[in-house]
């Protein structure tokens, strides 16, 4: 069947672009001497849509037979920006590359394919990527056969795709967050056509199961859901990641069981808002708390999750988390602002009082819980009093650590159109005051641990001193202590000797029982 050709004129509003081919749904144009093949391009209008369209799950994603040798004697290199979601997408792409016969390299000069897996959350994240593309231009000139690709959240933005097409002709491939599984096909298109290939889907997204994943170490990410329907007014994620859709519990559980069998020590369940898990199931009542209850009985030592939205954090979940076991006492709970007025303009859909009440309930049920958060300062119109409400909520809730950000306007989001009368110097000053408070809170929470014996999972050797090992407690605190390399990958007990602001020094109480625990990941 012949595919219809879409009108992409809004993506090439540059006068010197010429359409040279329109066939099979693809448009090829010439711009600055480069042929650009658009298979599909992002569209904000489509990205905003949240229709009733059924989410399809695809299980059959085998790499085509003729692609299985495509990367023989070739190397790939992926640079990953942004959140854990992107880190995990990179693991999927690594899996795909390796199934095509490519090998990983850490040396970009050796690479035959370089991918930038990008983040669009704040302007400085985007600036970094464009800066990197500038550096890679020289490499591409030295090695014209190099394939340079841009994927991830920035690719979902029409303005970015437009800029890549007009200003970065040395980019060969642009694809988005919904079509990662198409990587082998797209690479083939680039190699055979030698055109810049663009394929970005804006549709709400399906779920693609059974993709290969190349994981390292003893800790694994596990997606439980994709997308976000919250549409906080400052945030670009609902546009770049599509609508909320949950993987079926049986698929998640099968993956976790498999990781347990392979000896992984820790998993982190991933979603932009894991508390919304299961809301989209038409045929069953099964939510995040039910999933956690089921995962509790799987023999994997530590289970984390990120990120949770305060709004959907229900009593059932608190009750399940309070049972402990492999469900650890670390809860990352972004609250963004302590002012009800600002929260309203952010469209977070909870008040300061509701957040305080949630924290009270969590602390009552899980007294040793370590809470961390994300906070934005300088949201449009934020007053000094409103900012001080953020400072006071940090104290009241005894947050141990927080990622703090200056608000960054994102094109196409409602907040970007709000009047902003807070000067940048004021925003910066608020950020430093907040950071000073967070440092104080972090040190205070670490000081409470002095003399205590805690379990750590030993994650690696310190870069500066090979005699020093580092690990994490159940509550996700970073611990440094002396010990030999062969303790890495094991659980052990350490006693906290000296609390620092962002980590704790400790000493081994008893070495791990290496023989009993020596199944590696
Ligand atoms: N889904 C997660 C957040 C993902 S983005 C959640 O809701 O918790 C990670 C953090 O980036 C957010 O929590 C927020 O603090 C920050 N952030 C998002 N958009 C931003 C923007 N436009 N400017 C500054 N910070 C932003
Ligand atoms: Fe962004 Fe809000 Fe969704 Fe988090 S919940 S990803 S901040 S829209
Ligand atoms: Fe960035 Fe996309 Fe994650 S915008 S924070 S990489 S979901």
UniProtKB/TrEMBL annotation:
Which residues of the sequence carry a binding annotation for [4Fe-4S] cluster 2?
228, 232, 235
Is-annotated flag, keyword 4Fe-4S? yes
The chain positions of domain Radical SAM core read 214-444
Which intervals hold domain MTTase N-terminal? 74-192
**What do the Gene Ontology cellular component annotations say?**
cytosol
- Taxonomic superkingdom: Bacteria
Entry's localization field: Cytoplasm
Enzyme Commission designation: 2.8.4.3
**According to the record, how does the cofactor bind?**
Binds 2 [4Fe-4S] clusters. One cluster is coordinated with 3 cysteines and an exchangeable S-adenosyl-L-methionine.
Please name the InterPro entries in this protein's record: Elp3/MiaA/NifB-like_rSAM, Methylthiotransferase, Methylthiotransferase_CS, Methylthiotransferase_N, Methylthiotransferase_N_sf, MiaB_methiolase, rSAM, rSAM_horseshoe
User: What does the record give as the reaction this protein catalyses?
Assistant: N(6)-dimethylallyladenosine(37) in tRNA + (sulfur carrier)-SH + AH2 + 2 S-adenosyl-L-methionine = 2-methylsulfanyl-N(6)-dimethylallyladenosine(37) in tRNA + (sulfur carrier)-H + 5'-deoxyadenosine + L-methionine + A + S-adenosyl-L-homocysteine + 2 H(+)
Which ranges carry the TRAM domain? 447-510
Looking up Gene3D superfamilies in the UniProt record yields: Methylthiotransferase, N-terminal domain, tm_1862 like domain
Which GO-annotated molecular functions does the record name?
A: 4 iron, 4 sulfur cluster binding; metal ion binding; tRNA-2-methylthio-N(6)-dimethylallyladenosine(37) synthase activity
Record key words, sorted: 4Fe-4S, Cytoplasm, Iron, Iron-sulfur, Metal-binding, S-adenosyl-L-methionine, Transferase, tRNA processing
What this protein is reported to do is described as: Catalyzes the methylthiolation of N6-(dimethylallyl)adenosine (i(6)A), leading to the formation of 2-methylthio-N6-(dimethylallyl)adenosine (ms(2)i(6)A) at position 37 in tRNAs that read codons beginning with uridine.
**Which family does the UniProt entry place this protein in?**
Belongs to the methylthiotransferase family. MiaB subfamily.
Q: What PANTHER family does the annotation carry?
A: CDK5 REGULATORY SUBUNIT-ASSOCIATED PROTEIN 1, MITOCHONDRIAL TRNA METHYLTHIOTRANSFERASE CDK5RAP1
Describe the protein's quaternary organization and the partners it interacts with: Monomer.
- Protein's name in the database: tRNA-2-methylthio-N(6)-dimethylallyladenosine synthase
Where does this protein come from, organism-wise? Cohnella thailandensis
Lineage of the native species? Bacteria, Bacillati, Bacillota, Bacilli, Bacillales
Designated gene of the protein: miaB
């Amino acid at each position: 069947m012949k595919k219809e050709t879409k009108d992409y004129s809004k993506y090439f509003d540059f006068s010197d672009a010429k359409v040279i081919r329109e066939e099979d749904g693809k448009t090829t144009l010439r711009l600055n001497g480069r042929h650009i093949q658009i298979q599909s391009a992002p569209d904000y209008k489509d990205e905003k849509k949240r229709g009733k369209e059924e989410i399809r799950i695809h299980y059959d994603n085998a790499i085509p037979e003729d692609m299985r040798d495509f990367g023989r004697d070739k190397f790939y290199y992926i640079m990953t920006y942004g959140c854990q979601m992107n880190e995990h997408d990179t693991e999927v792409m690594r899996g795909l590359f390796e199934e095509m016969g490519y090998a990983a390299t850490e040396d970009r000069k050796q690479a035959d394919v370089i991918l930038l897996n990008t983040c669009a959350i704040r302007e400085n994240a985007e600036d970094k990527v464009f800066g990197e593309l500038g550096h890679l231009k020289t490499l591409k000139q030295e090695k014209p056969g190099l394939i340079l690709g841009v994927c991830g959240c920035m690719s979902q933005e029409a303005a970015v795709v437009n800029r890549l097409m007009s200003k970065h002709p040395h980019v060969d491939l642009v694809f988005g967050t919904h079509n990662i599984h198409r990587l082998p096909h797209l690479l083939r298109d680039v190699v055979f056509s030698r055109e810049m290939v663009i394929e970005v889907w804006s549709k709400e997204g399906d779920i693609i199961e059974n993709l290969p994943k190349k994981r390292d170490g003893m800790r694994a990410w596990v997606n439980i859901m994709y997308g976000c329907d919250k549409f906080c007014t400052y945030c670009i994620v609902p546009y770049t990641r599509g609508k909320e859709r949950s993987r079926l519990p049986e698929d998640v559980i099968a993956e976790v069981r498999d990781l347990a069998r392979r000896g992984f020590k820790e998993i982190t369940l991933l979603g932009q808002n894991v508390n919304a898990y299961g809301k989209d199931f038409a045929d069953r009542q099964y939510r995040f708390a039910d999933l956690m209850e089921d995962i509790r009985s799987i023999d994997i030592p530590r289970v984390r999750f990120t990120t949770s939205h305060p709004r959907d954090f229900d009593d059932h979940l608190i009750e399940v988390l309070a049972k402990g076991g492999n469900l650890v006492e670390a809860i990352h709970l972004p609250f963004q602002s302590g002012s009800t007025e600002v929260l309203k303009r952010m469209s977070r859909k909870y008040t300061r009082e509701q957040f305080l009440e949630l924290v009270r309930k969590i602390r009552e049920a899980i007294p040793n819980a370590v809470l961390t958060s994300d906070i934005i300062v300088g949201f449009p119109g934020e007053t000094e009093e409103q900012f001080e409400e953020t400072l006071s909520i940090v104290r009241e809730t005894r947050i141990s650590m927080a990622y703090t950000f200056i608000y960054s306007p994102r094109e196409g989001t409602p907040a970007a159109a709000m009047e902003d009368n807070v000067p940048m110097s004021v925003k910066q000053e608020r950020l430093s005051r907040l950071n000073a408070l967070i440092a104080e809170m972090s040190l205070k929470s670490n000081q409470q641990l002095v003399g205590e014996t805690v379990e750590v999972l030993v994650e690696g050797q310190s870069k500066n001193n090979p005699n020093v090992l580092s690990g994490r407690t159940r509550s996700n605190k970073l611990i440094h202590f002396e010990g030999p390399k062969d303790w890495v990958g094991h659980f052990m007990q350490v006693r906290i000797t000296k609390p620092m602001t962002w980590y704790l020094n400790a000493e081994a109480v008893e070495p791990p029982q290496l023989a009993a625990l020596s199944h590696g990941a």
